[in-house]
């Protein structure tokens, strides 16, 4: 039996999960997302957390909220990129940003190591 309680997902993680489901075709154009209250209860998070996730997806252009009805995957206009393709591209972009961030952190560490060996460059103070 696990003594550690499971960590509850934050809004960003919930949005990523739904974005992945849109990208995979689990939710298609015109499909209604789970009701925010029901989904919050299922995940064990505050209603506001799910609402924030849905807002993030709305700002990305993947879903639209219809007052009194729910949140739906957008049905693209003719010639417009569909939500599935947009979600796939966003997911790929996030992976690329994570990869670049990791590489950048490694480069920063290497520069610090080089500076420690070389010492301050001309014009820099030892402060």
From TrEMBL:
Q: Extract the InterPro entries matched here.
A: Bact_HTH_transcr_reg (IPR050679), Tscrpt_reg_HTH_GntR (IPR000524), WH-like_DNA-bd_sf (IPR036388), WH_DNA-bd_sf (IPR036390)
PROSITE patterns linked to this entry: HTH_GNTR
Output the Pfam families linked to this UniProt entry.
GntR (PF00392)
Coiled coil region boundaries = 90-117
**Highest rank taxon of the organism:** Bacteria
Give UniProt keywords alphabetically. Coiled coil, DNA-binding, Transcription, Transcription regulation
Give every HTH gntR-type domain span: 8-76
For this UniProt entry, which segments traverse the membrane?
none
Entry protein name:
Winged helix-turn-helix domain-containing protein
| Species of provenance | Streptomyces bobili
């Amino acid at each position: 039996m696990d003594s550690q309680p499971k960590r509850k997902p934050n809004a960003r993680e919930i949005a990523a999960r739904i974005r992945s489901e849109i990208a995979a075709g689990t939710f298609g154009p015109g499909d209604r997302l789970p009701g925010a209250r029901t989904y919050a209860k299922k995940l064990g998070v505050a209603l506001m957390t799910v609402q924030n996730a849905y807002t993030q997806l709305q700002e990305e252009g993947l879903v639209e909220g219809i007052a009194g009805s729910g949140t739906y995957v957008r049905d693209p206009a003719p010639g417009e990129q569909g939500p599935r393709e947009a979600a796939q591209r966003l997911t790929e972009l996030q992976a690329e940003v994570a990869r670049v961030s990791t590489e950048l952190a490694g480069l920063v560490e290497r520069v610090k190591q080089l500076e420690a060996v070389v010492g301050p460059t001309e014009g820099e103070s030892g402060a």
